[in-house]
Amino acid sequence: RNMQRNRKVVFVSHSHHFHGAEICLLETVRSLIRYGGIDVHVVVPWKKESHLGNELKKAGAVVHPFIINPKWVDYKLPAGRRIVWMKQSVRAFIEFWRFLRKEKPDMVISNSIVSNPAFALVARMQGHRFAWYIHELADLDHGFTFFAGKRFTFSIIRLLSNKIIFNSNFTFRHFMGNKKIDPRKMAVIDYIVDSARLLDGAVSSITEKFHNIGTWEILIAGRTVEGKGQEDLLNAAGLLKNKYGVQNFHVTVLGKV
Q: Which residue in 27, 18, 74 sits closest to 49, CA to CA?
Protein backbone atom coordinates (compact mmCIF):
# COMPACT_ATOMS: atom_id res chain seq x y z
CA ARG A 1 0.00 0.00 0.00
CA ASN A 2 1.44 3.36 -1.04
CA MET A 3 1.15 6.06 1.59
CA GLN A 4 1.46 9.61 0.32
CA ARG A 5 3.61 11.67 2.65
CA ASN A 6 2.39 14.95 4.08
CA ARG A 7 3.66 18.11 2.48
CA LYS A 8 5.94 20.16 4.71
CA VAL A 9 5.65 23.94 4.99
CA VAL A 10 8.12 26.09 6.92
CA PHE A 11 7.00 29.56 8.05
CA VAL A 12 9.54 32.19 9.03
CA SER A 13 8.20 34.56 11.69
CA HIS A 14 9.91 37.93 11.96
CA SER A 15 9.32 38.10 15.73
CA HIS A 16 8.19 36.17 18.81
CA HIS A 17 5.64 38.85 19.78
CA PHE A 18 1.88 38.57 19.32
CA HIS A 19 0.90 41.46 17.05
CA GLY A 20 -1.13 41.62 13.84
CA ALA A 21 1.13 39.67 11.45
CA GLU A 22 1.89 37.07 14.10
CA ILE A 23 -1.82 36.56 14.84
CA CYS A 24 -2.43 36.10 11.12
CA LEU A 25 0.40 33.56 11.08
CA LEU A 26 -1.31 31.62 13.86
CA GLU A 27 -4.67 31.67 12.03
CA THR A 28 -2.98 30.51 8.82
CA VAL A 29 -1.25 27.66 10.64
CA ARG A 30 -4.52 26.56 12.26
CA SER A 31 -6.27 26.55 8.89
CA LEU A 32 -3.55 24.54 7.16
CA ILE A 33 -3.49 21.94 9.92
CA ARG A 34 -7.30 21.65 9.87
CA TYR A 35 -7.12 21.22 6.10
CA GLY A 36 -4.95 18.16 6.63
CA GLY A 37 -2.05 16.58 4.81
CA ILE A 38 0.38 19.37 5.75
CA ASP A 39 3.11 19.34 8.37
CA VAL A 40 3.67 22.90 9.55
CA HIS A 41 6.97 24.07 11.01
CA VAL A 42 7.53 27.62 12.25
CA VAL A 43 10.87 29.32 12.82
CA VAL A 44 10.47 31.84 15.67
CA PRO A 45 13.45 34.09 16.49
CA TRP A 46 15.18 34.46 19.84
CA LYS A 47 12.74 33.15 22.44
CA LYS A 48 12.61 29.50 23.45
CA GLU A 49 9.30 30.20 25.17
CA SER A 50 6.80 32.81 24.00
CA HIS A 51 3.05 33.24 23.80
CA LEU A 52 3.23 32.96 20.02
CA GLY A 53 5.29 29.78 20.22
CA ASN A 54 2.96 28.22 22.78
CA GLU A 55 -0.14 28.99 20.69
CA LEU A 56 1.51 27.59 17.56
CA LYS A 57 2.32 24.37 19.44
CA LYS A 58 -1.28 24.12 20.65
CA ALA A 59 -2.41 24.46 17.03
CA GLY A 60 -0.23 21.47 16.10
CA ALA A 61 2.79 23.19 14.56
CA VAL A 62 6.40 22.25 15.24
CA VAL A 63 8.13 25.36 16.58
CA HIS A 64 11.86 25.93 16.10
CA PRO A 65 13.46 28.64 18.27
CA PHE A 66 15.93 30.45 16.01
CA ILE A 67 18.88 32.73 16.65
CA ILE A 68 17.65 35.95 15.07
CA ASN A 69 15.76 37.46 12.15
CA PRO A 70 17.55 40.79 11.53
CA LYS A 71 14.88 42.98 9.96
CA TRP A 72 15.69 44.79 6.73
CA VAL A 73 12.61 47.00 7.06
CA ASP A 74 12.45 48.67 10.47
CA TYR A 75 13.12 51.92 12.27
CA LYS A 76 16.20 53.73 10.99
CA LEU A 77 19.42 51.75 11.18
CA PRO A 78 22.19 53.88 12.71
CA ALA A 79 25.49 53.82 10.84
CA GLY A 80 27.19 52.19 13.82
CA ARG A 81 24.76 49.27 13.72
CA ARG A 82 25.15 48.40 10.03
CA ILE A 83 28.14 46.10 10.47
CA VAL A 84 26.34 44.32 13.32
CA TRP A 85 23.25 43.94 11.10
CA MET A 86 25.35 42.47 8.28
CA LYS A 87 27.02 39.97 10.63
CA GLN A 88 23.62 38.94 12.01
CA SER A 89 22.29 38.48 8.47
CA VAL A 90 25.23 36.22 7.53
CA ARG A 91 24.72 34.21 10.72
CA ALA A 92 21.00 33.83 9.96
CA PHE A 93 21.87 32.66 6.43
CA ILE A 94 24.24 29.98 7.71
CA GLU A 95 21.90 28.71 10.43
CA PHE A 96 18.90 28.61 8.08
CA TRP A 97 20.97 26.82 5.44
CA ARG A 98 21.67 24.04 7.95
CA PHE A 99 18.05 24.01 9.08
CA LEU A 100 16.61 23.59 5.57
CA ARG A 101 19.19 20.93 4.67
CA LYS A 102 17.80 18.92 7.57
CA GLU A 103 14.07 19.64 7.16
CA LYS A 104 13.78 19.57 3.32
CA PRO A 105 10.42 21.41 3.12
CA ASP A 106 8.14 21.64 0.11
CA MET A 107 7.53 25.35 0.72
CA VAL A 108 9.06 28.17 2.74
CA ILE A 109 7.01 31.27 3.61
CA SER A 110 8.29 34.50 5.17
CA ASN A 111 5.42 35.97 7.14
CA SER A 112 6.28 39.68 6.93
CA ILE A 113 7.91 42.19 4.61
CA VAL A 114 10.37 43.02 7.41
CA SER A 115 11.79 39.47 7.44
CA ASN A 116 15.43 39.30 6.36
CA PRO A 117 15.98 38.30 2.69
CA ALA A 118 18.60 35.74 3.79
CA PHE A 119 15.79 33.25 4.44
CA ALA A 120 14.43 33.67 0.92
CA LEU A 121 17.90 33.41 -0.59
CA VAL A 122 18.66 30.16 1.24
CA ALA A 123 15.33 28.63 0.18
CA ARG A 124 15.85 29.46 -3.49
CA MET A 125 19.51 28.39 -3.52
CA GLN A 126 18.49 24.99 -2.14
CA GLY A 127 15.70 24.64 -4.70
CA HIS A 128 12.69 25.09 -2.39
CA ARG A 129 9.62 27.03 -3.41
CA PHE A 130 9.38 30.33 -1.55
CA ALA A 131 6.56 32.80 -0.84
CA TRP A 132 6.58 36.21 0.81
CA TYR A 133 3.39 36.97 2.79
CA ILE A 134 2.99 40.75 3.16
CA HIS A 135 0.67 42.14 5.82
CA GLU A 136 1.88 45.69 6.25
CA LEU A 137 2.71 48.88 4.39
CA ALA A 138 5.72 49.30 6.67
CA ASP A 139 6.38 52.99 6.05
CA LEU A 140 2.86 54.45 6.13
CA ASP A 141 1.43 52.36 8.97
CA HIS A 142 4.50 51.73 11.16
CA GLY A 143 6.88 54.52 10.19
CA PHE A 144 9.52 51.98 9.14
CA THR A 145 12.42 52.64 6.81
CA PHE A 146 13.40 50.38 3.90
CA PHE A 147 17.14 49.92 4.52
CA ALA A 148 17.72 49.02 0.86
CA GLY A 149 15.21 51.57 -0.45
CA LYS A 150 11.58 50.78 -1.19
CA ARG A 151 11.97 50.16 -4.93
CA PHE A 152 15.03 47.91 -4.55
CA THR A 153 13.39 46.02 -1.65
CA PHE A 154 10.49 45.05 -3.85
CA SER A 155 12.79 44.17 -6.73
CA ILE A 156 14.50 41.67 -4.41
CA ILE A 157 11.15 40.32 -3.20
CA ARG A 158 9.97 39.81 -6.78
CA LEU A 159 13.26 38.16 -7.74
CA LEU A 160 13.39 35.69 -4.85
CA SER A 161 9.70 34.77 -4.55
CA ASN A 162 7.81 32.09 -6.43
CA LYS A 163 4.67 33.70 -4.97
CA ILE A 164 3.95 37.05 -3.32
CA ILE A 165 0.89 37.02 -1.07
CA PHE A 166 -0.85 40.21 0.09
CA ASN A 167 -3.37 40.53 2.90
CA SER A 168 -5.62 42.91 0.93
CA ASN A 169 -6.11 44.54 -2.44
CA PHE A 170 -5.11 47.82 -0.78
CA THR A 171 -1.69 46.42 0.21
CA PHE A 172 -1.30 44.90 -3.25
CA ARG A 173 -2.02 48.22 -4.99
CA HIS A 174 0.28 50.10 -2.62
CA PHE A 175 3.30 48.04 -3.60
CA MET A 176 2.50 46.91 -7.10
CA GLY A 177 0.80 49.99 -8.56
CA ASN A 178 0.74 49.62 -12.33
CA LYS A 179 3.76 47.33 -12.56
CA LYS A 180 3.41 44.58 -15.13
CA ILE A 181 3.96 41.34 -13.23
CA ASP A 182 2.86 37.82 -14.04
CA PRO A 183 -0.51 37.53 -12.22
CA ARG A 184 0.23 33.88 -11.51
CA LYS A 185 2.98 35.08 -9.18
CA MET A 186 0.59 37.23 -7.11
CA ALA A 187 -2.17 36.34 -4.67
CA VAL A 188 -4.44 38.32 -2.36
CA ILE A 189 -5.75 36.47 0.69
CA ASP A 190 -8.19 38.72 2.51
CA TYR A 191 -8.70 38.51 6.23
CA ILE A 192 -12.00 36.74 6.71
CA VAL A 193 -15.23 38.25 8.05
CA ASP A 194 -18.10 35.85 8.73
CA SER A 195 -20.64 37.49 6.43
CA ALA A 196 -23.21 34.76 7.18
CA ARG A 197 -23.73 36.27 10.63
CA LEU A 198 -24.70 39.56 9.02
CA LEU A 199 -27.11 37.79 6.69
CA ASP A 200 -28.65 35.98 9.66
CA GLY A 201 -29.77 39.18 11.33
CA ALA A 202 -26.70 40.12 13.33
CA VAL A 203 -27.19 43.77 12.37
CA SER A 204 -30.62 43.78 14.05
CA SER A 205 -29.14 42.16 17.13
CA ILE A 206 -26.31 44.69 17.30
CA THR A 207 -28.58 47.71 16.90
CA GLU A 208 -30.89 46.33 19.60
CA LYS A 209 -27.95 46.13 21.99
CA PHE A 210 -26.87 49.65 21.06
CA HIS A 211 -30.33 51.02 21.88
CA ASN A 212 -30.58 49.11 25.16
CA ILE A 213 -27.32 50.42 26.63
CA GLY A 214 -26.75 54.03 27.72
CA THR A 215 -23.84 55.49 25.77
CA TRP A 216 -21.22 53.43 23.95
CA GLU A 217 -17.66 54.72 24.13
CA ILE A 218 -15.79 53.49 21.05
CA LEU A 219 -12.02 53.88 21.02
CA ILE A 220 -9.66 53.15 18.15
CA ALA A 221 -5.97 53.33 19.01
CA GLY A 222 -3.14 53.41 16.51
CA ARG A 223 -1.07 55.69 14.31
CA THR A 224 -3.44 58.05 12.49
CA VAL A 225 -2.32 57.15 9.01
CA GLU A 226 -4.10 55.94 5.91
CA GLY A 227 -3.16 52.30 6.36
CA LYS A 228 -4.68 51.89 9.84
CA GLY A 229 -8.33 52.22 8.81
CA GLN A 230 -9.58 55.03 11.05
CA GLU A 231 -11.54 56.34 8.07
CA ASP A 232 -13.37 53.00 7.86
CA LEU A 233 -14.49 53.39 11.48
CA LEU A 234 -15.80 56.89 10.82
CA ASN A 235 -17.70 55.65 7.78
CA ALA A 236 -19.16 52.81 9.87
CA ALA A 237 -20.19 55.31 12.55
CA GLY A 238 -21.97 57.31 9.84
CA LEU A 239 -23.86 54.18 8.76
CA LEU A 240 -24.95 53.48 12.34
CA LYS A 241 -26.30 57.00 12.71
CA ASN A 242 -27.80 57.60 9.30
CA LYS A 243 -28.95 54.13 8.24
CA TYR A 244 -29.78 52.39 11.51
CA GLY A 245 -30.75 55.37 13.67
CA VAL A 246 -28.22 54.63 16.40
CA GLN A 247 -27.22 57.86 18.14
CA ASN A 248 -26.01 56.80 21.60
CA PHE A 249 -22.29 56.40 20.96
CA HIS A 250 -19.13 58.49 21.01
CA VAL A 251 -16.04 57.74 18.91
CA THR A 252 -12.52 58.63 20.04
CA VAL A 253 -9.57 58.31 17.68
CA LEU A 254 -6.36 58.00 19.70
CA GLY A 255 -3.03 57.98 17.92
CA LYS A 256 0.10 59.81 16.94
CA VAL A 257 -0.05 61.77 13.69
A: 18
CB-CB neighbours of 257 under 10 Å: 5
pLDDT digits (tens, 9 = 90+) for 13-55: 999 998 889 989 999 999 999 988 999 999 999 767 889 999 9
The answer to whether the CB of 207 falls within 8 A of the CB of 247 is: no
Burial 99-110 (b: 16+ CB within 10 A, else e): bbeebebebbbb
* pLDDT tens profile 148-181: 898 899 899 999 999 999 988 888 888 877 677 7
Strands in 137-215 per DSSP E: 145-146, 163-166, 186-188
Closest among 99, 106, 111, 104 to 26, alpha carbons compared:
111
- Tell me how far apart the alpha carbons of residues 210 and 240 are, in angstroms, rounded to a whole number: 10
Give me the count of residues in the chain: 257
Across the beta sheet with 129-134, the strand order is 62-66, 38-45, 7-12, 107-110, 129-134, 163-166, 186-188
Longest dimension (CA), the chain: 66
User: What angle do the packed helices 82-103 and 117-125 form, to 10 degrees?
Assistant: 40
